[in-house]
Amino acid sequence: MAHQVKPDLILLDIQMPGMNGYEVCDAIMKDSGLKDAAIIFVTAHGDTEHELKALQYGGVDFLQKPLNPLIIEARAKTHLELKNRQHQLNLTRGTLDNIIHHLPVFVAYWDDELNNVFSNDIKGNWFGIAAKAMLGQQLKDVINQNNILDTTAISVLSTAIDQVMLGKTMGFDLTFNASSSEVVFVSVSLVPTLLEGKFNGFVMLLNDITPMKVLQNDLHQDKELLKVTLNSIGDAVITTDVNGIVNFMNPIASSLTGWRVEDAVDKPIEQIMPLTDSSGHFPMVNPIYIAIKECRIVGMAFNTLLHTRQQKKLEVEDSAAPILDQYGQTQGAIIVFHDVSETRAMALKMSHLANHDSLTNLPNRMLLQDRAERAINTADRNNEKVAMLMIDIDNFKSVNDSVGHKAGDILLKKVANRLLDNSRTVDTVSRQGGDEFIILQPEITKLDQVASCAQRILALFTEPFYVNEKRFDLSCSIGLAVYPDDSMSIDMLHKHSDLAMYRAKELGRGRWHFYADEIGSSVLARHKLEQYLRHAVQEQLFEVYYQAKTDIRNNKLVGMEALLRLKSADGLFISPAEFIPLAEECGQIVPIGNFVMRKACEDAISWQQMGLKRRVSINISPIQFAQDDFYDTVYKLVEELSIDTGLIEFEITEGVLARDIERTRDVLEALQKLGIKISIDDFGTGYSSLLYLKRFPIDILKIDKSFIDDMLNDESDEAIVDTIISLANSLKMQLVAEGVETIEQVNALSAKGCFVMQGYYYCKPMPYQQMCDYLQQNA
């Protein structure tokens, strides 16, 4: 069995029939294939004689019967670990011996009398003496043979050995005379070994560094050549390390930056070469850092200014590139630049003259054409509009005839300045010649932006103009055309705005007119509604209606939603879907929202005092919620009215949760601590994400009316409703179904586990007094 399995450890009984344990042990020890096995004898004999005999036969341990399994296991583990370590040690010794004899360096050991004890130079490649022949030879005899070392090298080596014998580690370079008559550069390391603090011998390591020396010489020559080249070229050159610290600059760079080379080295590149944009106010990242970070060539921005050490500002251009080592790793970067101040100034002047009106300095027809093309391309990509406003000063010819062209030119300049001062930065104000101006408006998303601009321009002309203390009262006619609504090209945009301008003149001058009548009517109606909204905010014309929420399990009215209503001047209701988005756009939603919040709180307090306590939910606009003082406004209102905050519920949309997550969570948590309930309105129709329900403190989910409407006929809507109900129940949130209008919807929702409902099936929205009666009827 031992021959079959080649054991590491054998438990061997002494007394056995036919052949006792000693005989087995003797046979195993004599077998070269088994002699490394560890043998533990096991016997009932507890005397010293048997234990000694077991050890003499080669046993490693002795166990007495009766056996203790734990002791057996512990002994076995110990001897197996010893065998494993012995095996590893043998492997290590073999590996180390193999490594040393195949190293490309000379390794030898000399004892305290400088006799050779070991050498790995089996073939004698270094001193012409093979390792076996070198054993026992004196060091001086070895180094003097074969003229490998000249007298200088021998002297240096002897001096170093004297130091090693004093216990010092020595390292230096020598030249060997190779058999090929070539000089070989060798790195020498001498490492002493000490025994009880006394010199006991030393290790000698010799390494051929000839290729490295040759490379160093080549690099030195290349470096000198590169230095001469960089110092001779007409561009400024600066190099840095990988951290952007300057390590070289040529004379041109020194001249442009105002820094002497010796002062610049070891300083950050941004200190030596501070860059800003053309305004001089906004610092720019030096291309060196981008080249290092992204490992690519980086062109300098077109509008780059270099601030010299003497506070001069130079326009510069060129590029930076990473410096890579032989492994492709970035070691630093180089930037090459030159002064283009004069060249660029001349180019800009020529370009400006070619693209601007000489009188007003406004863009001329050529520049307007270019900007219009770019505006239309951008509008196509972003689904936006482009507007052109053609402005013609009414009866300007009479001004020229009465006061002369010189005064007329001054007047045109004043008109140009007034138009410029009252236009957006993205707009282009252009003079086409004579008394005709054009404003090009890109990035238009709503037509009332164009109308508002036209209205502002008309207002500009209501202020008189003065030339040489003479007053001029001017008016203008404005034609408006919009791409792509009524014009499909630049030429059509120009033509249609021109036609619309003449139409404005026909209608009596001093007015604006859209090319398309239907656009003008729509914008005008929207403009009127915006004005009426502002009037309604000032005069408190809004009303708050309430729609009940009913728990069908006990048919009890458990709360209500506050709904904003607004009547027009003729007493008809304006749809909230029409005026609320407009209120958000024109900045009126915050005062409107605060009005609703105050009115709903006051009515809730009133119902509580009547013994009809119910919670009122208030819709909070995303714009209102985003106000920095929103929580403070709520807190002050609660304090002022002394309202029980359990009567308040805020309904927010999922869009609120998607903005500024950290701030939103903080505000919602603060509102909850105040005692206010938070519900998600129209859940599932916006930026639906289960992550929101996990991150934010939400009390109630409201199932949107759009899902309720088709729930009975559309499997997808029914599945969505099922999911929302299951989700709310799992998260222990309350549920409210909006837009419930039929008994079939009631039955289906209750069967699914949603019991609080809101909709026309129970009641329509009603004003305060009517809701009082409804509450009393349902008390």
Automatic annotation (TrEMBL):
Residues 222-274 form the PAS domain. CDD domains: EAL, GGDEF, PAS. Keywords: Phosphoprotein. The modification 4-aspartylphosphate is found at residue 13. Residues 1-80 form the Response regulatory domain. Residues 526-779 form the EAL domain. Residues 384-517 form the GGDEF domain. It holds the Pfam family Response_reg. It comes from the Bacteria. PANTHER family: BIOFILM ARCHITECTURE MAINTENANCE PROTEIN MBAA (PTHR44757:SF2), DIGUANYLATE CYCLASE DGCP (PTHR44757). This is Response regulator receiver modulated diguanylate cyclase/phosphodiesterase with PAS/PAC sensor(S).
